[in-house]
Amino acid sequence: GVLLGGLDEMRHVTTYGKAANRTATAYFTVAGLTPWQVAAHLASRKINVWSGDLYAWELTGVLGIRDSGCAVRAGLVHYNDRSDVDRLLEAVAELG
How far apart are CA 49 and CA 26, in angstroms? Predict the structure, then answer.
């Protein structure tokens, strides 16, 4: 999809999870920033995301991201459209 593809194109972003069948979410980190810092930046752009382990304690340990604050989760729902995805991608690109 557009969200994951856009994030994967950014050199400063690492995405997690490559399942063929998945929900409309992205779990990612931004190089040099904590997930909290990324979430705060996105919030300043009026984009709501979650950050942390999101109850995936064991997984974040296996991925090696637990000690750095884990990751950011962006989720899409039925009322989101392409402009919402584009705004999120633009805001994440500002961090690179």
Answer: 10
76 in Cβ contact with 85 (< 8 Å): yes
| Sequential pLDDT tens for the chain (96 residues) | 899 999 999 999 999 988 888 888 999 999 999 999 999 999 999 999 999 988 889 999 999 999 999 999 999 999 999 999 999 999 999 999
Structure tokens given for 80? 């989101």
Residue whose structure tokens are 């995301």: 49
- pTM equals 0.91
Could you give the CA distance from residue 22 to residue 24 in angstroms, rounded to a whole number? 7
Structure tokens at 43: 């919030």
Contact by Cβ (8 Å): 11, 96: yes
Residue 75 in tokens: 């989720």
